[in-house]
Task: inverse folding
């Protein structure tokens, strides 16, 4: 029988429940641990202590209790020390709004070569919209100038003889919208450029005026690509071609 010290090598313990008439065993401490895992042994279960010659609760024997129900080590995380990389300098001067804008535009020593290209693209798009508006205004002048007398006198009979005046009025309206920044008109502006090149080009071809056709082609191409290019150099070329071509048509007073 057991002397109260746990052993894992031999049958040392007899156990019984509170209401059991017969004891079970002998069991080693390891076997009792297995029974405990199965729920057949609890701290209230009795074991026979041969030295004291009496039945005692397993829970009263700290050594046996620890052998059957060993304490499990708690898992934890070791706190890691974090070191700040960017340390604030209380003596550093405050950043002004202008410095912030200069940094965003790549004008500071730290941001040179790191300028956000989307800003240039956005500015180029704005210049393209304004340039397209100017081209449309000049186109309106070129188309409406031959019918200026009919417009001032509001003689509709004469206006019908100059139908391109109505196209010029449409160009004037589109130019005003572009000047207001209505970029949703871009698809229509491109259609107007292609339509103008085909329709007006046919009229000029019947007149046998190749110089005017070249000017029309330059103006129409400039109008078309001014709504597409987002880089300053190609946009500048497109605007020069568009404004120059339409201005040449207006100077020729062909329509």
Result:
């Amino acid at each position: 029988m057991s002397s109260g010290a746990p052993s894992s090598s031999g049958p040392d313990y007899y156990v019984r429940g509170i209401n059991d008439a017969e004891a079970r065993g002998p069991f080693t401490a390891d076997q009792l641990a297995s029974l405990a895992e199965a729920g057949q042994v609890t701290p209230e279960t009795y074991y026979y202590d041969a030295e004291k010659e009496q039945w005692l609760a397993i829970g009263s024997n700290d050594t046996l209790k620890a052998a059957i129900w060993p304490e499990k080590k708690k898992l934890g995380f070791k706190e890691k020390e974090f070191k700040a990389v960017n340390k604030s300098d209380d003596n550093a001067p405050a950043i002004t709004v202008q410095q912030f804008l200069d940094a965003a535009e790549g004008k500071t020593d730290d941001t040179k070569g790191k300028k956000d290209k989307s800003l240039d693209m956005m500015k180029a798009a704005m210049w393209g919209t304004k340039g397209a508006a100017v081209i449309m205004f000049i186109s309106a002048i070129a188309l409406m100038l031959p019918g200026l007398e009919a417009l001032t006198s509001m003689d509709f009979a004469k206006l019908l003889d100059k139908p391109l005046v109505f196209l010029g009025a449409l160009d004037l309206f589109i130019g005003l919208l572009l000047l207001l920044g209505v970029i949703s008109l871009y698809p229509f502006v491109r259609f107007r450029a292609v339509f103008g090149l085909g329709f007006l080009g046919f009229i000029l071809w019947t007149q046998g005026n190749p110089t005017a056709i070249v000017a029309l082609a330059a103006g129409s191409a400039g109008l078309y690509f001014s709504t597409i290019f987002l880089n300053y150099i190609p946009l500048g070329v497109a605007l020069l071609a568009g404004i120059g071509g339409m201005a040449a048509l207006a100077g020729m007073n062909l329509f």
Summary: Residues 194 and 220 are 7 Å apart (CA to CA). The longest strand covers residues 13-16.
